[in-house]
Amino acid sequence: MPTTAADTLDALLAQRAQIHPRHPALRWDGGDPQWQSLDYATLAQRARALAQALPVERGLRVAWLGFNHPAQIALLFALARRGALLVPLNHRLAPAEWAAVLNDSAPVLLVHDEAFAEPARALAAAHGLAAMPVEALDGGDEPPTEPPDGHAAHEGGPDDPVLLVYTSGTTGQPKGAVHTQANLLANMAIAAQVQEITERDTVLTALPLFHVGGLCIQTLPALSRGATVLLHRRFDPGAVFDALAASHPTLTLQVPATLQALVQHPRWARADLSCLRALWAGSSLLPADLLRACHARGLPVCNVYGSTETGPFSIALGPAEAMDHVGSCGWPAPGVEIRLVGTDGEPVASGRVGEICVRGPNVVGLYWPDIAALDAEGFFHSGDLARQDPDGSYVVVGRAKDMIISGGENIYPAEIEQLLAEHPWVAECAVVGRPDERWGEACVAVVVLRETAPEDWQSGVSAALEGRLARYKWPRHWHRVDALPRTALGKVVKPAIRAWLVSQR
């Protein structure tokens, strides 16, 4: 049994295959039989066969466009072996947005599944690169034969880039965060330690692997510890309940939108959740009503704070504290340093709000191709604002760019949004600032109401803030809308809301 930590993804997978070769690594709900169930030995063989067969050299990029697929994970390990990079495309984006990522990353190959065959072929033709259907990837289970000269054997090292993930681009053009093998391995170790993942766990992955949340919070950490991953092509609440009943996963990761779909599903009330020892959420802000619904079922909702650039496992709220720290992101993950700084770049006083800065072995150093992502001291500036409570835990209060300055007072929208979201008439909401001659900025609440809301909803909703929020923080204007604008990852696009408000004046 190996006694030293692996320093590359290829070495890690080889260790897992040696320790328990026939233990299930990936089980998939897709239709291709050759990928539906892979043990660790088979996953390692597939990855090495791909590394030998793919027409890529060290430093080159391969893009992926499709739903979740075990081949995407095998491809990541194969490219790591070659010293090449995987560029997962967000399948929810528009063709022009895909084109922008391809223009920036310049891959040599675009691998796609059947659902995205047509746009993938069009993208490949427009960008002069080869398109390969996932069915063409070598799925053979025979061990690959290494060439005599050692070509394709351990070309990728710890410091080699292996994963290029583009930010969601809510404030401009997306940027590609360059994750090295060392970054990913550090994040796996941190995430697995905090979540106490072992080979006895079964992890349900329903979130998209094109995002670091779906890939790096549980999926890769689970594989690093020899656990079994139940991989769903895409999120479907009915399929999640089916998996709970049939496969009894011990852990899963959700985001507010998918958690809401589960809680509101007809099967929620009678579903047996006892197999789950925790439900983790990849979101800095979680609606209180969803937390109450889960906690009422005895299911602790743990939280992970992070970003595309930070692994993303940066701050975590574990199951022991989940029920008595509602609204908190928890404490810094092992080996991760957190610093809160003011607008002058200096650390803020205890209890004051500051920008979250993160330093750790899982934090990327560059944006593609060679743009520095860190300050001179190695900290990543997140743009998120938080305060640290006396017990050392952190509470995120919003984005720095979203902070409202009204009458000389700083107002953090997240604080207001969390209270409004608790009201039974409010389905979702966003609070933004609008230029105001008297106050500098005025606080504006834009809300999506439930069907139960009466015509005179505004007074009832605002009254719920009485005694819970200082008067100067109350919204001065209210707008009802049918839906909030969101990115492909589900983030509310506040610049679009502010632009809409200007158009209404």
UniProtKB/TrEMBL annotation:
UniProt protein name: Long-chain fatty acid--CoA ligase
Residue ranges occupied by any AMP-dependent synthetase/ligase domain in the UniProt entry = 14-368
For this protein, the record's SUPFAM superfamilies field holds: Acetyl-CoA synthetase-like
Q: Where is the composition biased (Basic and acidic residues)?
A: 148-157
- S-adenosyl-L-methionine listed as a keyword: no
Keyword Ligase listed: yes
**What ranges does the record give for the region Disordered, renumbered to this chain?**
135-162
Entry's family note: Belongs to the ATP-dependent AMP-binding enzyme family.
Residue intervals of the AMP-binding enzyme C-terminal domain: 415-491
Listed A to Z, the keywords are: Ligase
Q: Which InterPro entries match?
A: AMP-bd_C, AMP-bd_C_sf, AMP-binding_CS, AMP-dep_synth/lig_dom, ANL_N_sf
What are this entry's molecular-function GO terms? medium-chain fatty acid-CoA ligase activity
> What Pfam families does UniProt report for this protein, alphabetically?
AMP-binding (PF00501), AMP-binding_C (PF13193)
Q: Which PANTHER family match?
A: ACYL-COA SYNTHETASE (PTHR43201), MEDIUM-CHAIN ACYL-COA LIGASE ACSF2, MITOCHONDRIAL (PTHR43201:SF5)
Q: Which domain of life is it from?
A: Bacteria
A biological process from GO: fatty acid metabolic process
